[in-house]
Amino acid sequence: MSRRRSKLFGSVTLWAWIVSLALHGLIFAVLSGYRPSFALADARLAASAAADLTQTRLRRLPPQPVTRKPQVRKLVSIHQQPSVRPVPIEMPAPISIPMDHGAGPMLPSSSAPADAGFFTEATEFFGQLSADRKICYVVDASGSMLGRFDPVRTQLQQSLSALAPDQYFYIIFFQDGDKLIESANGRFVRASPLSIQTAYDFIATIRPKGATNAVEGLRRGMSIRDKDGQGPGLIYFLTDGFDLEQTGVEGFARRIENLRKTLAPRTKINTIGFRTEQTDLQILRDIAAASGGQFSSVE
Predict the structure, then answer these.
(1) Of 5, 91, 169, 207, which has the fewest Cβ atoms less than 10 A away?
(2) Domains in the chain: how many in total?
(3) 87 is a domain residue
(4) In which domain, by residue range, is 23 found?
(5) Tens of pLDDT along the chain (299 residues)?
(6) Of 245, 260, 289, whose CA–CA distance to 138 is shortest?
(7) Do 103 and 39 share a structural domain?
(8) Residues 61-97 as b or e (16 or more Cβ within 10 Å = b)
(9) How far apart are CA 287 and CA 120, in angstroms?
């Protein structure tokens, strides 16, 4: 009886261990199968928390303006003409200008030919073109010009009207002795509309009289200066003749050239013979040639 109980107790103990092991295995299997689910849940919770934190930070940041992408334009090279007018590179040959007694001197067009080296806005005085920046007009207003001064007055006014605003001018009329009639006080005047109109009124008051004193007129013209102390680039010199009793033809031209070298060595002198005798015309040719200027004759 005792042996049967021992055998039975051993059987029960064996089955208990088997059942225990089976239960533990089942529990272990169940727990092992759900572990990934737990990890996934933890990951989802962490991602959700991070997203909430990001949204919170974004809400705290101030709104940023939206900047449009700049539009880039392709650069195009444009060649423009220079704004500075060139100095004449070639002087026209001496010309003879006929007179129409009813309408004044007959002048060529103010537009220079293409090969003359001038811009069309260059000023003109009895057919002589110039683009010099500072121009002085030295004009004979002696008694011998009486009765034929109106064409000179007209051409002088037209020359002034063709000046550009960045040019300067000065006018000197010479008569007998040391009498000079000037448009200003020794300084070049800018060619503004107001100063040109003032010059028109000044020219209208001139009345020829007395003897001819060209030397003093030219001396004064060479002495005119701008605000920087620079002399004229060009002198337009018009006369109908000279008093040659003391100097003679060669002596007069040489005297003028010596004055120029002393007072205005860079100045050109364009000479205009206005119904002038042949002897006086030669003086005008010599004066122009010595200074690098131009000569012309009005008949």
Answers:
(1) 5
(2) 2
(3) no
(4) 1-60
(5) 555 555 555 666 667 777 777 777 777 665 555 454 545 555 565 556 555 655 555 455 455 554 454 444 443 333 333 333 433 434 334 444 444 433 344 433 333 333 333 344 689 999 999 999 999 999 999 998 998 899 999 999 999 999 999 999 999 999 877 789 999 999 999 999 999 999 999 999 999 998 888 999 999 999 999 999 999 999 999 999 887 655 566 688 999 999 999 999 999 999 999 988 888 899 999 999 999 999 999 98
(6) 260
(7) no
(8) eeeeeeeeeeeeeeeeeeeeeeeebeebeebbebeeb
(9) 27
* 44 lies in the same domain as 103: no
Amino acid at 222: M
Same domain, 26 and 115: no
Residue 86 lies inside a defined structural domain of this protein: no
- Do 112 and 42 belong together in one domain? no
Q: How many CB atoms lie within 10 A of CB 156?
A: 22
- Residue 128: both structure tokens together: 């002589």
From the list 177, 270, 261, the residue with the least C-alpha distance to 222 is 261
